[in-house]
From TrEMBL, chain A:
Pfam families in the record: DsbB
Membrane topology designation: Multi-pass membrane protein
Taxon lineage: Bacteria, Pseudomonadati, Pseudomonadota, Alphaproteobacteria, Hyphomicrobiales
Name listed for the protein in its UniProt record: Disulfide bond formation protein B
Domain of life: Bacteria
Subcellular location: Membrane
InterPro entries: DiS_bond_form_DsbB/BdbC, DsbB-like_sf
Annotated keywords: Membrane, Transmembrane, Transmembrane helix
Amino acid sequence: MISQRNELLLNAFGLLGISVTLAVAFLFQILGGELPCPLCLLQRAGFLLLAVGPVLNICKGPKSAHYGITILAAIVGAGFAVRQVLLHIVPGDGGYGSTVMGLHMYTWSLIIFLGGIVACAVMLLFRSPENDAAVETKATVLRVSVIGSIAVASVIGLAGLNFASTVVECGFATCPDNPVSYILLK
Amino acid sequence: MYLSLLFLMLMVTLIWAAYGSLRGASVLTAATFVVAVLVYLHHATDTLPLSF
C-alpha cells in the first residue's frame, strides 16, 4: 500500500511532469516560433485541467474524488488530442508542427493523457484507504512539502504564461485555425 | 478570446484549488470543464477526412 507521504510525493512528481510538458510546448512556441493552433491550445488547457486533481491532493489532502477529477480531465484532454490526430491521420498529410522523437506533439499529448488515466487507476488500486482518514486529522494534511509547493507554483505560473501568450496571439477575437503571427504584435 | 478566457479560468481554478475552499474549487473546476468542452465544440467544425 502507498502511504500518504508517498502518495503526496507521487502527486508532486506528476504535477512536475505536467509542468515540464507545458514548458516544452512553450519553448517550442517561443524559441521555435511555432504558434499553437486552437486545438493545440485546448490540449494545453487539458493539461492544466489534469493538474487540478494533483493540486487538490497536495494542498487539501489526498482523496479518491480528486483522482476522479484527474481521470475526467484526462478523458477530455485525450478527446482534444484524438481529434487532432484524426485530422492528420490520412496518408500524405504531413501533420501540424514539428515532431519530437518522431511523433507530433498532439500524438504525445494523447499518450500522456492516456498515461494519466493509467497512473490514476494504479494509484487508486494501491493507495491506502486510510490515507483519506489521515487527512481529516489535519496532522499531515496541510503540511505541503517543498517539492509539492514548487510543483503547484510552477503549474500556476505556466497557466498564467499561457493566458498571457494566448491574449497576445489571438487578441480579443477567435483564434485563427492556422496562426502565423501574434495578433497583438502586428 | 474564448481560449484566453479558458486559460484565465484555469489559472483562477488552480489558485483556488491551492489556497481557497474545496467547495469553491469544485464549482470552478466544474465550470472550467464545461467551458473547455464548449470552446472545443466552437473550434471543432472541420469535417474529419474519415469514414467508419
